[in-house]
Predict the 3D structure of the following.
Amino acid sequence: MKNNFKDLATNFVLKYGVIVALLILIVVFSLTTRAFFTVDNLFDILRAVSILTIVAIGVTFSVVVNGMDVSVGAVTGLAVILSTALMVIWQIPWYWVIIICLLAGAGIGLFNSLLIMRLRIPDLLATLGTLYLVQGLQMWITKGDAVYRGMTNPWSPIREVTKGFIPKQFLVLGQGFVFKTESFRGIPVPVIVMLFVAVIAWFFLDFTRYGRAFYAVGGNMEAARLAGIPVRKYRTIAYMISALLATLGGLVLASRIGSGAVKAGDPYLLDAVASTYFGFAVLGLRKPNVWGTFLGAVFVGVMLNGLTMLNVPWYIQDFIKGLVLVSALGISFAIKKESR
Amino acid sequence: MRRFRAVVLVLLVALVLSAFAQAQIPKKFDNPKNVRIALVREVGEGSFFERYLAGAQSMARELGITLLEATANGDMARMVTMMENFIAQKVDAIIVDHGRPDPLMPKILEALDKGIKVVTFDLVVADDRVPEIEQDDLLIGYLISKQLAVDFAGKANVIYVNVGGFAPLDKRDRMWQIIKWRFEGIKEVAKTGAVTGSTAADTQTRMEAVMKEKPEANAVLAMWDEFAKGAVRAIMQAGKSSQFRVYSVDVTTEDIQMMIQENSPWVATVGTDSYAVGRLAVRAAAALVGGEKLPKYLLVEPQLVTREFLIQNNIKNMDDLVKALPGLGESNLVWPEWIKALIEKNKK
């Protein structure tokens, strides 16, 4: 019995190597720094990874249907520039801006799925093409300038100063807090948005008929078709969700930085894809899943926060991040091979 | 007859005078449209470079010359290809804006061999024929570090945001080291920062962590405005404006807007106007084409800009700032008489 428990424990450690590594990291950072293990900081970490998680859950959807969407970084960047430019240069109310951006995002998702399904371009190539298109569009909107209050209107021949600004209501999305109390700063709004997206996506994929159909399409398209699942429709929806969540991530990002930085979405592509594939291993599921993706993103956030507090130079941080990741994954995968 | 003589005399004088005036402008610029200057840029996005390009274009317009632009989006191989293309097109001069010396040097030499003039901006080139334009980065680093030390009367706990490996940032760092040596009470309690695809947002995240870990910190020194933007956003969103003063480098309209907003901890920055630098680059290239000899180093002098100054003078953007602080405006470098004459002539 005792032996059995030991086996179970070892098995757990090895199977969930990544989660164990995450827990160890949290303990180490808590002991070595003053401020890591505080409620405010833990929410800061979640806030820092919220945009990544939202984008990564979008990518997860495209991977679930056995596809790949590499245009997400560009779409995130487009949402940043488009939303801020609409408010600052063209002075459009913030609620319309959100609607316009989400429509643009849905449009890009639809465009991706048309390229992939109607023109039968391989998904990686199709979304790569979209990446450049959207990137170019993003630069075109402001002729390469960033968007900020008091900028000169790039479309005005006399370099007229713009009068628009980003209103407080929009800034809440990235900078606000809810459930404030005397002693508690509150939960950051982006964290709420992220959890909302994660819970809905998780419920949808794991507990509904539609979710199972998504996985069926990804598992074996031919079998899914024979089973009467409208494969095309599901793949289209997956790409639209992917682009929509990338847009939502971009809106939160724009609100968080309160201005439109150029190509701000670029770094999210690699991190989102990494989180998604990382998510395969995290819970030992070996398929794309929402909580795995979420934990993958949190892992990245914890490392960044803790290592920065320890004053570790940035050029070593990536190396340490890679080292911990590879070791955790190595343990996870090695044991699974043995146990089979 | 006398009348005829008088007319001839007047005509003669007019002819001599106009010939004299024209002789000053080099022959190449008889029809300035035929003078083609290429601008090869490593990066083009962001307010600094947008304004730099606008400056270059305005100078080209005033001189009446043709300006060809190409931007490599940070891709060094593409930058080399662009150089090759412009050499093949036999342009008169190439302005090389940033980039790395190793891959670009052979192309610069090739251009020089073919009689194409070359000017660089923020790129070190070991060849006397190539004038280098640079914001005086050592002076920038000194001015801002000194301002911090003096403001804090020699005692401050500084969060230093900078990275190594970039020539301008390294030069600024040198002066910070000297200031720390001079003022013993100036302590660097943490060093952070990373250059990523979105530096400002990344710095913001890092700054949130550092602020909590080093509650004793009361100053931030950011050697690039992208760093400063992230630091300022982190401080303001944490409601710690009264605890911190932020010092930075570079000045754009976006930076000015962040400095003048209510409760902004961003108290000072040092920089040049990229508009003036863009104008200088085109002017220098044109001067070389016109046979002018230029000094090897064209160092653009930076100016200190404080939040107090901006607010007192009600400055909202770069145009306002240049008016209030003339030292920041048009550079006094490279103004041969014929260039002034050419601009005057084109105005007509």
